[in-house]
């Protein structure tokens, strides 16, 4: 007798395939699972896109450790840890979409570039990501001094103020590892252990980074129009300050930089093929509604046909991450 696939009475052979899974990486001051931020957002996406598998990145062994690692630790090691964990998840083996929030935008892009042999990222959306680094310190005033996030932020701020490029700070304070002072670019290129590499800014280019980004179906860079946390706010679009001490510092847009014209990362290739999108979200850093995210990210660039199940919460303003 011929052997084949057994169809049970309840099987629906005409059922749609499951939506592409989604991975999200939070920003500074947050963690994977906070019920008021990323945990709530995961639940919302699962209701907005029926059948989707959603995974929130956690660094360390617990949500509390994840919050701490948003300030302290070696970012290169954190990205490697995330790659290992994501590569081991069966639901992600055939590829996934990804959204990075604030500094998580930069870290999920790093994972995309460095682990392309194991991670198959399809569409990558970054929300307020400091892709060209930050030229000023985090705004710790948004945190209550009584919270762990407030204490961590002020400790990181003090370390960067004291010596952003010292061996200890540059290897253990997260924000120092994407700090880019336009007055000291030589020191930045020489001593920063993370951002110059992930942006392919050094003389020796890593072609696998370019290959990984050009393999994306789409890269969407979202800038917050009133962002005062990421400085400059156009770092979300890969703009950077002109080197030197001139004040006010002129911004150099992506398309006027060697990074683009010489295509160090594949951004020009993405752009010329219509797969690089520079979008905006009105308002301050990381403030957006569920309805805005669904319409302008999930539907527009990822899933299209998802339907909201909980209309009552769709217009609630949500601050997903307190800072970068």
Number of strands: 10
Computed over alpha carbons, the radius of gyration is: 20 Å
What composes the largest sheet?
6 strands, parallel
- How are the strands ordered across the major sheet? 2-1-3-4-5-8
Helix-and-strand structural type: alpha/beta
Count of DSSP-assigned helices:
12
User: Runs with pLDDT <50, length 5+?
Assistant: 1-11, 306-317
Mean pLDDT: 86
Termini separation comes to 62 Å
Give the helix proportion (percent range): 25-40%
How would you describe this protein?
The chain contains twelve helices and ten strands. The N terminus is likely disordered. It has 324 residues and is α/β, with parallel strands linked by helices. The chain is globular, with a radius of gyration of 20 Å. α3 packs across α4. The longest helix has 16 residues. α1 links the parallel β1 and β2.
Defining key terms:
33% helix, two-stranded antiparallel sheet, alpha/beta, disordered N terminus
Question: Brief overview, please?
Answer:
With 324 residues, this protein is an alpha/beta fold. It has 12 helices and 10 strands.
Helix/strand layout:
Blueprint: E1 22-25, H1 38-48, E2 54-56, H2 63-69, H3 75-87, E3 96-101, H4 103-114, E4 121-127, H5 148-163, H6 167-172, H7 185-191, H8 195-198, H9 207-214, E5 218-224, E6 240-241, E7 251-252, H10 258-261, H11 267-272, E8 276-281, E9 287-289, H12 290-302, E10 317-319
Parallel strand pairs: 1-2, 1-3, 3-4, 4-5, 5-8
Antiparallel strand pairs: 6-7, 9-10
Helix pairs in contact: 3-4
């Amino acid at each position: 007798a011929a052997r084949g696939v057994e169809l049970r009475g309840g099987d629906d052979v005409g059922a749609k395939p499951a939506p592409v899974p989604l991975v999200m990486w939070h920003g500074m001051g947050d963690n994977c699972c906070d019920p008021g931020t990323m945990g709530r957002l995961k639940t919302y996406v699962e209701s907005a896109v029926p059948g989707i598998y959603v995974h929130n990145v956690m660094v360390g062994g617990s949500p509390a450790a994840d919050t701490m690692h948003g300030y302290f630790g070696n970012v290169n090691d954190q990205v490697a840890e995330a790659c290992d964990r994501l590569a081991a998840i069966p639901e992600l083996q055939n590829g996934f979409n990804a959204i990075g929030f604030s500094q998580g935008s930069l870290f999920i892009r790093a994972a995309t570039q460095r682990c392309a042999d194991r991670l198959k990222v399809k569409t990558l959306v970054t929300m307020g990501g400091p892709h060209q680094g930050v030229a000023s310190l985090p705004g710790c005033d948004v945190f209550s001094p009584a919270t762990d996030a407030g204490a961590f932020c002020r400790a990181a701020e003090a370390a960067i103020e004291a010596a952003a490029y010292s061996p200890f700070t540059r290897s253990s304070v997260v924000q120092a590892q994407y700090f880019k002072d336009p007055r000291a670019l030589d020191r930045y290129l020489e001593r920063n252990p993370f951002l110059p590499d992930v942006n392919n800014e050094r003389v020796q280019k890593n072609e696998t980074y370019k290959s990984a980004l050009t393999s994306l179906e789409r890269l969407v860079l979202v800038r917050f129009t009133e962002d005062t946390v990421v400085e400059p706010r156009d770092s979300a679009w890969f703009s950077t300050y002109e080197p030197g001490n001139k004040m006010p510092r002129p911004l150099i847009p992506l398309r006027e930089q060697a990074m683009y014209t010489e295509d160090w990362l594949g951004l020009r290739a993405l752009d010329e093929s219509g797969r690089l999108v520079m979008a905006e979200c009105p308002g301050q850093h990381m403030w957006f509604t569920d309805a805005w995210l669904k319409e302008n990210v999930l539907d527009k660039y990822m899933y299209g046909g998802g339907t909201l199940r909980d209309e009552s919460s769709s217009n609630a303003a949500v601050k997903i991450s307190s800072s970068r």
